[in-house]
Please model this.
Amino acid sequence: MAEVAEISNQLIDFTTALDKLDKIGIEKVQEEMLERGIPHQSIDKLSALFEMEGDYRNQLEALSQILITSETGMKGIEELNFVFEKIERIGLNSAQLKLNLTLARGLEYYTGAILEVKAKDTALGSIGGGGRYDDLTGIFGLKGLSGVGISFGLDRIYLVLEELDLFPESIQNTLDVLFINFGEKEAEQSLKLAKELRNNGLKCVLYPDNAKMKKQMQYADKKQATYTIIIGASELENKTASVKNMKTGEQLEVGFDDISGFF
Model:
């Protein structure tokens, strides 16, 4: 956006002011940009950004018109589309996910989309934040390691739990189901089934990458998972899952449509 507005050399000034939009309003943000030396014509080029509304499709379509001349900007739109479309295909509650084009912070190390987590039904606001960074580890001497990170405010989470009376009477650290990761297509199906099982009250996770089976099963043992679910290429084709009872060693084939009823 700064590239299109021809203020790339003032990126930090631009984003610092923009990040205050929900606190001080459009007029004050524009005043601050002017005070920071950002020209009127640059602010005018981005005026649509301040009032962009609607779902992510409408926002990204409008944003495409602004960023059409920016290769970097169009790549960003492509990446955001990927995130939203995957979430919809998996069947997560995308209504709780909002695209906010005015969030901007930590740009000294974030290099892509940033995330902010808000608590519902309370005025406490943000309880977590993070984003994409391509070389944050470089400051510790480990170059070229990219990643995505997020941190949560423990004090704020405690206050939210207390305010909403959400502290459980007891907490157990067991894991009901671990989905073994065999690759992107298999992982996508696993996430769909995990969502279904979570809706039934089961604690489920998908192993984060396509690691060796031995490593994934060791993780299941470490977490004391009751079951592991394997969905490989053949299971994906047959629309079945191999469900293994980690306590007894018994393994059964269960159809995708029958997975909820199995537990």
Notes: The mean pLDDT is 88. The first strand starts at residue 114 and ends at 118. Residues 119 and 125 are 6 Å apart (CA to CA). The chain is about 40% helix and 15% strand.
